[in-house]
Specification:
Number of domains: 2
Order of helices and strands: HHEHEHEHHEEHEHEHEHEEHHEHHH
Shape: globular
Strand content: 5-15%
Number of strands: 11
Radius of gyration: 24 Å
Structural class: alpha/beta
CATH class of the largest domain: Alpha Beta
Helix content: 40-55%
CATH architecture of the largest domain: 3-Layer(aba) Sandwich
CATH superfamily of the largest domain: Bacterial extracellular solute-binding protein, family 7
Amino acid sequence: MKKFRLLVGLALISTLTIAPNAFSAREKFGADKRHDEVKKELRTIKPSTEEFKWKMVMPWSKGLLFYDMAQHFADSVALASGGRLEIKLFSAGELVGAMESFDAVSKGQADIGHDWPGYWKGKNEAFVAFASVPMGLDTEGYNIWLYERGGLEMMQELYGRYNLFALPGGNTGQELGLFSNKKASTIADFKGMRVRTAGWYMDILTNLGASVTPLPGGEVYLALERGVIDAAEFSSPAMNYPMGFDDITKYVIQPGVHQPSCQSAFFINKDSYAKLPADLKWIIDIAAKETQLWSTAWQENLNAEAVKLFKEKVEFVTMDDETINEFATASHDYLESLKAKYPDVKKVLDSQDEFKAFFADWRKERGGIVPWPHEQFIKGQHRQ
């Protein structure tokens, strides 16, 4: 009997190793497109010995977690290259002004920058689509769209017009809604409300009857405290917590429809990038992907902790479904008007909308299993 079992076991192993598709009606589904490129690279690539020292500029101060994301990338590059490529960070104002970082890298005054692409909407409105879109892509959606649905190529083409090479540079997840001293849950509540926000959401809220101002982050606390504004959004829970908005407001109006996800980018001067040997270019690419992965896990863990702390002081108010639908319609109409005016915006947003439609069936079919705590799940809280 033992001999028989041994023979059967060997036969199964033989079947699985010799004919891996023997039990499949189709060929393998999907493949890593990079594999063939790597095989070609390995025929010519050689470890380099040349050393490089780069300067990185950004809109962030050292107190913001965005700075930590940039530092994480620089550390990963230094480790993976054995110190052959060192990137020194300069926070806002140390080398150039916060909003001068794009031009500084483009002109070669610095080698690399870190950003939230929406800051550069004055150069091209389409930059905002690579940062955050009201009622747009979430973190998972950005990752799939960028890496698998052509988004990265569009990003690189747009930055490329300014002598820059771009890579995704971290995602911090969904932003909180509005910290507010007015309990708003319907569209009527937002009419006449004085709100701090920026980007496309500023115009959308204005169209809905709010009075909107794009105050810099450093001025938001005092404006709320003195009653100059009624409500403000700035970033994700973890980014917001050190700013202390919960000390001077009563409510957080949810959800953060203005930014379902907050995507950053690294942008590199093309001349600096061209000087790098192939192995260091691969290290930059892989370190950027590692930062993209790590930043989401790191931030979302902190976001969960920050929300618990906020709830000790402020009440979370959820807009009703009708109001969220009105925001969705107002956002859609506004974005359609941008697409009609700006061909680059149309190209990028159409691509994102195509991804939404492509992914919709799978999103629906998997939607019944969300990892809520057991007690909540069995009481009927199944969906996101």
